[in-house]
Write a structure and sequence with these properties.
The structure holds two protein chains of two kinds.
Chain A (H helix, E strand, L loop, with lengths): L27 H12 L1 H4 L15 H6 L12 H7 L19 H12 L31 H12 L10 H13 L5 H8 L6 H11 L1 H14 L17 H12 L4 H10 L8 H6 L16 H19 L20 H10 L15 E2 L3 H30 L30 H8 L7 H14 L4 H19 L3 E2 L49 H8 L5 H16 L20 H14 L2 H10 L11 H6 L12 E2 L2 H11 L55 H5 L18 H9 L1 H17 L4 H13 L5 H20 L1 H8 L12 H16 L5 E2 L1
Antiparallel strand pairs in A: 1-2, 3-4
Helix pairs in contact in A: 1-5, 6-22, 7-8, 7-9, 7-10, 9-23, 10-11, 12-20, 14-15, 16-18, 16-19, 21-22, 21-23, 25-28, 27-28, 28-29, 28-32, 29-32, 30-31, 30-32, 31-32
Chain B lengths: L2 H13 L11 H4 L2 H9 L15 E7 L5 H4 L4 H5 L7 H4 L21 E4 L4 E4 L12 E8 L5 H10 L9 H9 L9 E6 L25 E2 L18 H22 L2 H24 L6 H7 L8 H13 L4 E6 L8 H25 L6 E6 L3 E7 L3 E5 L3 E7 L6 E3 L1 E2 L6 E3 L2 E2 H11 L9 E3 L2 E3 L15
Parallel strand pairs in B: 1-7, 1-8, 4-12, 4-15, 5-6, 5-7
Antiparallel strand pairs in B: 2-3, 4-11, 8-11, 9-10, 13-14, 16-17
Helix pairs in contact in B: 1-10, 3-10, 9-10, 12-13
The chains are: A mainly alpha, B alpha/beta.
Chain lengths: 845, 471
Amino acid sequence: MRIILVVAGVLFISANRGVAADLPPVDFNRDIRPILADKCYSCHGPDDKTRKAKLRLDVRADAVSAGAVVPGKPDDSELLARIATDDADLRMPPPTTKKAPLTPEQVQLVKRWLAEGAKYSEHWSFAKLTRPEVPRVDKPAFPIRNPIDAFILYQLQQQSVKPAAEADRITLIRRLSFDLTGLPPTPEEVRAFVNDPAPDAYEKLVERLLASPHHGERLAVWWLDLVRYADTIGYHSDNPMNVSLYRDYVIKAFNANKPFDRFTKEQLAGDLIPNATQEELIGSAYNRLLQTTEEGGAQAKEYEAKYSADRVRNVGQVWLGGTLMCAECHNHKFDPYTQKDFYAMAAFFADIQEAAVGRREAGMLVTTPDQEEKIKELTEAATAAQAKFVAAAKSVATKPDAFADVDKWPIAPAPKGKAKGPIAPAVPADVKAILAKPIADRTASEVAKLASFAQLHAPALKAERTAAASAAKAKTDYENTLPRVLVTRAGPARTIRILPRGNWLDTSGPIVTANTPGFLPPLPPKADAKAPYNRLDLANWAVSPENPLTARTMVNRLWRLFQGHGIARSLEESGTQGDLPTHPELLDWLASEFQTKWDLRHMIRLMVTSSTYRRSSVETAADREHDPANRHFARQARGRIDAEFIRDTALAVSELLNHEVGGASVKPYQPPGYWTALNFPAREWQKDTGAKVYRRGMYTHWQRSFPHPAMVAFDAPSREECTCDRPRSNIPQQALTLLNDPEFVEAARVFAQHAIEKGGAKDATRIAWAFERATGRQPTADESKVLAEVLTKHRAEYAAKPADAKKLVAVGDTPTPKDINLEELAAWTGVCRVILNLHETITRP
Amino acid sequence: MNLQAIKLHQRRTFLGQACRGVGGVALSSLFASAQAADVARSGGALKKLHVPPKAKRVIFIVLAGGASHLELWDNKPELAKRHGEPFPESITKGQPIAQLQNAKLTCFAPQWGFKKHGKSGQEMNELFTHVPEVADDLCIVRSIKTEAINHDPAHTFMNTGSSVSGRPSMGSWITYGLGSDASDLPGFVVLTSSRGGQMQPIASRQWAAGFLPGRFQGVNLRGQGDPVLYLTNPQGVASEQQKDVIDAVAKLNQMHNTAVDDPEIATRIAQYELAFKMQTSVPDLMDLANEPMKVLDMYGTKGADGSFAANCLLARRLAQKGVRFIQLYNRDWDHHGGVKAGIKSKIEEIDQPFAALIKDLKRLGMFDDTLIVMTGEFGRTPMSQGGSGRDHHIKGFSVVLAGGGIKDGVSHGATDEFGYNAVENVFPVHDLHATMLHLLGVDHERLTVKFQGRDYRLTDVHGRVANEILA
């Protein structure tokens, strides 16, 4: 059970410590475990293989019985003696570990902890989830709109930190639009919100954005990073695989607010749900998203081991928020995951049928009911035509004169695969032998032989033959127009053994069966005690009320989407080596709220309608001094938008954006030769045309070994592994991309055309029009002047060099209107390039 | 330092700089060289080196596809003697094998003769005619081994110390730790060459920064099209007009900063300046016209044509510019068949430029502080594949080192009499990394970044500095 008291003093711990009087008790999770984990556990922790002196400090009973920890008596505790000594030969950690000795403050903390009784407590993320009480806050500094605000304000008051003011409405609508749809608001939307006098104007805006089909796209960008969605297999040849329908599935799930427990079950085990629907099967494509190989010389066993580990890593990260992967080779050094846990988790996925090495199959045909009906019709037609053909052949075979002119039949080669060796030049000897017999003497199998010979070659059967072939072709042709997706198919399970040191060649390890990590709440017994646990059991367990990790992990990540960083900052690690949550009660409150109905939209609504969310992101000098990292969430976090949304923003502002939701991946502009280092086969990017060139960034073909360079420049990951927290770098390639990538140059040119056409008659009004479209606000006089200067200069230059103007406006597929002045358009393109390159344009405020 | 701390550090770096309260100062002067250069250089995470450095930079040559040690550096008379005989099963039993799975394994003699050169008597393929001139500058290690037997994971292992995707590559680790002295070029540059043939793919993951910040990723200088992606101005935009756009962006960002006081804005302005400089510096770098003819002749190139020769010369130019880690991939070393003719053609391709690189660096006084490394992602089997080639092999192959802090004119380590297992002074890839970092002044156990709750490093939990080969 967690009490509010824990919060106090989380932050400015060490400064005033050292004096014993009036100090709050030492908290094991907050104060001691991080020290022990960092300095001691690698030799005195859970991994028995590397344990030194048989001493284990992560389990209290062991530490006490070894005499390392003597509760209440720091001076009798060997632990203190060894960390505090000046004798380099005795001091822990020893120099060979290259770990720095404990600081005097840390030694003091350990001493106090020992003196206070050396209490251990369970690590926060593994502890049972209970719903904390919402704290009462007197004289709140901003309206408490829901419990989030109470938790945040409570801590702000404890720390005497003043929250930032509420952001202005332009900022709020830009923030909400980017956060909920990944797109900037139009000026019309901005004005409508700014001028909306309704008291619930903000809430109405939130509901409008949550209901937008683009909301699902925005969340999908986040989810696809986690599950490492890409369009290609990753290793070596990195050929394409059919998974884009899984992306559509994710978008639809978010748009329909599919409960997260269902979403989980469909992905991990959609194929095992009784009478699985097409949608559930598509969800199970999750299990096929991993990197695979078709490299010649790759050993199946090695890659089976790789795939197995890949899946455990991903499930461990996405649902359990932890680094189970450390246990592939040895027991985890810091967390209670054992090597057996790793392989027992791997065993859940051992039933997935797939090629260990080789081309991925085309996958399941995905149809609408109408298409299903059409396939049925075509199949019936094909079957009927074939039956007719066979029947006709049979009657030919028994007809007395049918083979009279057999020597004149055109003997075409038998269909591929049927004939081995050289093609018979004429009627085969065995057929001739049968024909030599009187009809009455022919056996049934000889007649059948004649029938199949006739089927292949008899000129009299031409009509039936053609009809059967074309009916079959009609069916295949139709099916080929329909999408397919890799899905999970269960089958006989591979044997999973513990691989000593992760070595797949070593088969000496024991066989393990599917199970969840031993220290977490156990799986419920199966009705049939002998039946092995399967993926559906795993999925049910992941979203069971007893499992605290899934809910904590997910709400922490959601919080990151809307507040810039997690409540526990290390999104990829909630184990003992990760960062502690700054607001453990808030995190647990959110997690238990999420667990009640697994209602993702409800959680998002809570977060974005809170007063906390509405704070300004502008940092003051005081903020920088007291809380530079914004651990109190006293203000919002501003930051550059994600790679996909940078593209989307340029397309939206220039009104080039294709708003279609879902569909196969597309290939917009990409520099030629970028795939030179790809092979088997060697290939060149085949750019799409028409509306496909203007689809949102999330639909751009994701080539794992060479992701689109404009996306890479802005930190889009390769999707080879789970990405919980994209970095936000600020590098020159970003400038080069926004300045020179034809995608952005074309957007600027079309944007310029609209400024000329719709921005009024004067330069100043056009500049203001364009500036507002990209930033949501009117430019200041100074800003307008800077843009006017570019316009004036470039106008003169392009007037003098019309050939240059013609070249510039020719960038991109979109045609230029016939009646437009090209020099003028080129000059305005310069202005619009400036606007699309602004920091403000690509920043979520 | 964990990643949050890095980010925070970055932010703090700018708190006291450039943007704070700057009013009407002309931007061109504000962001002139010093500022932009500091940004480019910033981020050497190590404030102090751990050991005195011997090398300032690395040129790492990858003979991609898996060059045959048995045809280049590792002469095996016993293997030659047993040519055509069954390969001893005692050696291969239970070992990983690639394309020779289920095949009959027979001894396959080195396909070329070997000759000894220089005072040191370094032994190498008889076809080399230029490398012998620098034989006494080389340290040939014939006992490297790796852990991944297929191209893609093997490159990943050689570059990151792990065959799991997503870890930072060595060039990223090194620029992260040491920063870069290049003011208008990236600190980690990758060039690729080949003349066609069996070209195994090379994923961009090989120069990715993994969980390190994006600015430490390698930049691929391309032989065709824009040398750096999106480097060239849009058609119809003159250089001066591009500058107008960049200046206006900077001015408007600056104005916006007075309202929002965002440290990222200063960084962004500096990055635009750097990008603009790269638009000149990269073409200048790639333009070999101002190299004296005799230098071009020494390398055997006529200009930046994407050849290995041109890339070696570019590597020297990049080294002069202060680039920290230069990686040259030369493809088409995957000789599953026709290894005899294949190696001849590859030696003809690399012999002269590789020797020229060493001679040129010596001429410029840069050899002593430039570490040169040359190896494949793995070696090749002493067993025949299809009667004329060799399969992938990980248990023992060769790496050539030279320059910064490396003992010259020595051979180190050895494989067994078949050239199969490294048996003497075994040199795992992690030891290569540890040694490389050591020469750069870095203790490989202390260049760590916390990710997923764990202190990651290039050498994972392994690595030993090979003191035996240090000068």
